[in-house]
Design brief:
The chain has two helices and two strands. It is an alpha+beta fold. The protein has one domain.
Length: 63
């Protein structure tokens, strides 16, 4: 059994899905991309991005 025989969607959908996953990954420095699968089909792609701030902590004032 080849990979294409096991996938319940067409090659054109696979290409579009791959493109959407790559778009979700593009420019992502910190975070994650989650792919939701139901019944062997990708139904949702979630992108969670973290914004890392490199701020110094304010100095504690001595009384």
């Amino acid at each position: 059994m080849t990979l294409n025989n096991r996938l319940p969607y067409q090659a054109s959908q696979t290409s579009l899905t791959t493109q959407k996953i790559l778009e979700a990954l593009q420019g992502l420095r910190f975070g994650s991309v989650e792919i939701i699968v139901h019944d062997g089909r990708i139904v949702q792609i979630e992108r969670k991005e973290k914004l890392r701030l490199n701020l110094a902590c304010p100095a504690a004032s001595a009384d």
